[in-house]
Amino acid sequence: PPIGLESHRIEDDQILASSMLRHGLGAQRGRLNMQAGTNEDDFFDGAWCAEDDSRAHWLEVDTRRITMFTGVITQGRDSQIHDDFVTNFYVGFSNDSQNWVMYSNGYEEMMFYGNVDKDTPVLSEFPEPVVARYIRIYPQRWNGSLCLRLEVLGCPLSAVSSYYTQQNEVTSTDNLDFRHHSYKDMRQLMKVVNEECPTITRIYNIGKSSRGLKIYAMEISDNPGEHEMGEPEFRYTAGLHGNEALGRELLLLLMQFLCKEYQDGNPRVRGLVTDTRIHLVPSLNPDGYELAHEAVRGWWGGMGCGVKQCGRMWGAVGCGAVGWDGKVVECSPLPTALGVPQPPHPHPGAIPVRGCGVETRAVMAWMDKNPFVLGANLQGGEKLVSFPFDTARPSPPTPAAAPRPLDYEDEHPELQETPDHAVFRWLAISYASAHLTMTETFRGGCHAQDVTDTMGIVQGAKWHPRAGSMNDFSYLHTNCLELSLYLGCDKFPHESELQQEWENNKESLLTFMEQIHRGIKGVVTDQQGEPIANATIVVGGINHNVRTASGGDYWRILNPGEYRVSARAEGYNPSVKTCHVLYDIGATQCNFVLSRSNWKRIREIMAMNGNRPIRRVVPGRPMTPRERLRLRMRLRHRMRLREQMRLRRLNATMATSGPTAPPSTTALPFPFSSTVYTPWSQEPPTASTWEMDTETEVVTELVTEME
């Protein structure tokens, strides 16, 4: 397995070099898959580069323990400008960093062949393993400048020399299946969990991939298969990108853990399963994972360490090694929040999704079908929690001659926060703070400086702005608050590291799920107790509404405080009440009963009057001649409507008994043309008003003889 250059288990001070071209190309940048910053001339360039073209330069790694080295992976410089990579190199070993022994083939120093381009990693396997503490790479030939990115493979044979690192090493006590699972293995594991816990689990699929593989989901609930009134729905998804395997394995471990702990009577797990409907989708992109998994398995072939401590050989490498980055959900065009008003009725089908794959459409339909309240997608390549908005707002045009003030928008003129920014920060901190290493930001980020202000959380647009993300779509077009959990620098860690990664994330995964029970919840009904679906829940001061589910129930995640909340629905009078959210876990019950409104009847009245204002006659006030004329014309108009309705009822009655003569028509006392707008008092009756019965006559008679 890798000793940890890419995953940053090897710290910066464990990597040394004979020289460096500049600080941004120092030894600490010589990690496999290290990415350069947007400005390649800053402190965060994409490789280690020596200061000159001498063949005496070297790159050294101190493992701080006796290690059996089995090979190295080399890679060129990550750059859009330069084409630098090492083509040949020697390898040396030492136990004290003073006396070095070069790897030989028995009669001379063995030359290893490296890269043929700057991006593709190349594995150089040692014919025989070597036991030592230090390893050095001595480049001999290269293309362009002498630049290198590196990963070292080996099996530890002794305890780590650092006390602090030793304290952070955790061995899981959970009896779970810690290995990488192919599509077939994943399906079999889910089946085993379902058979062990049939009363709380259900396997279903949300659709198929472009190659026809089913996208499986595991539901965990005390009543699987149906939505229970008042029970919120939660989701974890993983595998948006085919080469990000850690999230996939963590969700498979999570479903095993919940099943076993529920059977063992763990009160915390039993409470989660009883009060929450949990959905776990370990692989949104099964096609991408299968390609990555098969490619790297074939690459590693029959390599082995020959020692018990190693277990299986490294089954896969990171993104750069596989070259597969099949994005599923982040397709274009998806809606952006910034500068666009929120639709009155969020709905995934109301936006264009042309150009998206079948996986994307399946996920969007799944999100629309279930009333999710909270969710997260597990990714890799960094170690932080990202929350919406992910889309950057376009900067407004500024006249060239107009100077900007000194305090103009400061650092991020393109950022715009969601109305639930404080809630998103709380949710993000709940995961990052419970993670064993995510807040250890003193080491910096995976590829550049720490962007989380030492908290392990960041708004997506501030860190990596992009349009059409799953998080933004979920926030703008569903009731669900969604975040992205970046689990580590190494997207595809070795199986021997899965136990440690599970312990790092286990408490975070549970704590984040529990946040769904923070805020307010309730049911919206009418005065007869019937639920009102699709009612709008409005929280004062937060310009983001949610809708009730089919059973009239709703959930709204809020931070502790006092809120003025209203419920509104078509055809009902709104209801307003004050709801208090406490600090303890447990949503506050806030139910609403709505009464029928007379707005529907008022609209019918307005329609009969041509949608024009109806003048109110005040009793006791003399009428002007103009008002008297209008009243007389209005009364005549009503009489004509009633006569028409009487004749239609008569015709309907006679039609059932036999043929009748055509009814006589009442001539209008004034000329009428359908192409000329008449005064409002002389407008002819419409077809809709003719259909109305006398019992539903909506105009109150105002007959006052003022002659």
From TrEMBL:
Q: Where is the F5/8 type C domain?
A: 1-155
Limits of the Peptidase M14 domain = 179-516
UniProt keyword annotations, A-Z: Glycoprotein
Q: What does UniProt give as GO cellular component?
A: extracellular space
Q: Which GO annotations describe the biological process of this protein?
A: peptide metabolic process; protein processing
Q: Identify its protein family.
A: Belongs to the peptidase M14 family.
Instruction: From the Swiss-Prot or TrEMBL record, give the protein name.
Output: AEBP1 protein
Organism (species): Ptilonorhynchus violaceus
